[in-house]
Structure formats: structure tokens, C-alpha cells
Amino acid sequence: MIRAWRADSTLEWGSLAYELSGAGCLQLRSDATRISHRCAHSQLCGQLAGSGSMLTRARLRSSCLTRPWSQSLLLRHRQRRVEHYSSAAAQVEASNDAFFTGNATVLPSTHPLAHLRSELTSRPYAITIDVPTHIPSNLLHKTLFDFLPKTYHDVLFQKRASTSSVPPGYHLIHFPPSDPLSALQSDGTDPAHSPGPPFNRRMWAGGFMHFYRDIPFDCRTRECVEKIANVEVRGKEGEEKVFVLLKRLMLDEHSMPMIAEGRTLVFMRDQPADAAAKKQRIIKPPAEPAYSHTLTPTAGLLFRFSALTFNAHRIHLDKPYCQEVEGHRNLLVHGPLSLVLMLDMLQGYLGSSNDRIVRVEYNNLAPLYADEPMRVCGNKKGLGEYEVWIEGADGGLAVKGTVKTDRSEVLASHKKWWTQ
User: Fold this and answer.
1) If both were cysteines, with which of 40, 209, 278, 346 could 360 make a disulfide (CB 3.0 to 4.6 Å apart)?
2) Domain tally, the chain
3) Count of CB atoms within 10 A of residue 69's CB?
4) Do 258 and 379 belong to one domain?
């Protein structure tokens, strides 16, 4: 039996099970409550189910904190978690099958790369655990502080001070991959989505997001279910590009979606360094923006964002690698970072209105580089719909997206959207 003390009474829990989360927290789980405890501290945060009162202070018996985990206990714990998450993945697959497998394209059986789709889409579901807190979001906010208009600082601060949840787009720094360094590929990327040689170069091509409700900062363990939903091969033989569509669901404690997300990664063949340096076609921006802001990303900004997203991709960190191997003139700006900048700029433009971002679609059309100016722009397209984009140093369109907002607090049912 483990006891927790309050000033007015003594509370007890029974049948508690231990678990270690990916965030390095010791989790104590029971039928009545879940309390999260940092291994380095003895204070717990949680809510006693049924009592309606917050547990303000608790202590564990020293034997529970100092007793080493036995091998058998670790094995039993690991087996329980595998069974739990395998069951959760099956449940998600059954209830959201159209989301994970909809709109799939099939390569002709005679295509030399037809095997890639079956091989990649047959890979198992990946379930990532995180305990979202305000700390990573605050670090990202501070990282972007010097790159956003000063007139937007107060607006963004007030919006985030009035809520206790992950800001739109900031979920990208949560649920990161957890591969050890030894498992990473030569370019620093994780191998989970790679089709393998000769497609060794990876870029973030675009994606979509649907925000059903915010992820709260409530010290609860959250789950993200990820699956390779589709694979497309484009380009003539010998110059193919493999587009891998990932679909992710961020779930609450009842396994209901809070955020649905799609990511399109493109994998390309190795090529001589001078091939990537060829002049690219410049795409004209769609219109004159209603708002815009020019900023110059730095190597420090890219390093911090890589750290927050647990991303070791060398195109964002290693300038000699970018130039000598990938053929780029400088470090590349992250695709997710470009998206976060567009969403922050839009929220600053919306000011104190009650518009809530509910859906985002975006495409990365051309690379953006460190130490080169980029212009973040936006326009109102219609009722609750905005066009956002980023122009590169040459004035051409580098990123283009559409954002939809909804003033209502309760969103419409999402069931129809799963099948779109």
C-alpha cells in the first residue's frame, strides 16, 4: 500500500502499477487516479477521482523510490504496455480505418518500385507517449520571440496566458521519435518511414492538420498513433521520387482524437552535389498580402528547433554536409518551422478575436535557407478561411497553405471528415 498525505486527512490507493513514460516520468496508475511524478522530485500532481479536490502534496515511502527495479518486474511491465498499446492500435484501426487507409493509390504491378507501397504500408502502427507540459511550448515561444513582429508579442502572450493548452502547430514539438543515435541513418533521420537505398535523401513536402480540440497541459499521459497510409512514386525511371504519407492521431485519455495530422515526406535518390544547385523555377506569390513580415532565420534558430523536435537531420545542422553532400548553399529551414511561423503570424493578425484554427493544409514548394530573408504573408480568402504563404529570398513562393477557423467553441462532428 502507498500512502499520500494531506494536511486534513490521509488518503490511500491500492493496486497501483508502475510505468515509465517516454518523457522520463514515473507513472503510478490505478482505477481511481493517475499521478505523475518526476523521478528527481517527491512532489506529485494529479486529481483524486471522485473527491473533486486537487492533491496538493504527496509523499512516497522511501523504499518505493530507492528500491531498484528487478528484471522480472521490468519484463512484466513491458509486456503489459505492449499488450495495452497493441490493443489501442487495433481499436484505433477499427474505428478510424478510413482515415488511415483512405485515398490510397496503387502502383501498377509492372512498375519496378511497386513493391515499395506494400512494404511500407504494411509496417506496424507506431504509438508514441508524451506528457505535454507548458515548458516545450514556452521554449518554442521564446525561440521565435526575436523573429516575430513586436506588435504581435502582446497578442500572442495574452492568447497563451488565457489558455492552458498546446498552441496551434506547437504539437509538432511533442510526440518526437525516440530512436537511439545508433539507429539513425547517415543523414541523421529516423528509419521508420524510409523506403531504403537508393532513396537516401529526405525532405518534408507538406501535410494537413485538423484540430478537434486543444491538448491541455494537465500532466496526463497522451498517446499518438502513427501509420504509413500511402506511398506514391513520381517521376521517370531513374529519377523517381517516393512520396510517403504518414497519418497521425493524437488521442485523449478516452482514445478520442484531439488532433489529426497528415505528413508527406519525399525521398529522393542520391545525386551529385552540383545537381541540387541548379536554378529552380520561381513561382509567383498568389496576391498582395493583407499582412506580412520579413525575417532572417539563423543557424541558432534552426538548432533550437531541431532540439525541441528531437530532430538530428543534418540538413538543418551541418553546413558542410548541406553543401558537399546534398548540394544546398546553406542550412535548410525546417518544413514544420515554416508552418509554425505562418500560424503564429496569422494568430497575431487575428488579434483578440475568438477565431480558432481548426484545419490547415500546406505544401513546401521550394527550400528556404538560413541567413537569407524570408517573407511570411497572409490574406483573408473568405469567411473563416485564410491563405498563408512564405516568399523566399528570390521573391518566389516557397510555402503555400490554407487555414480555416471556427469561432464556435464546440466543433462540428468529425466523422464525415475521416472519409474525405
Assistant:
1) 209
2) 2
3) 10
4) yes
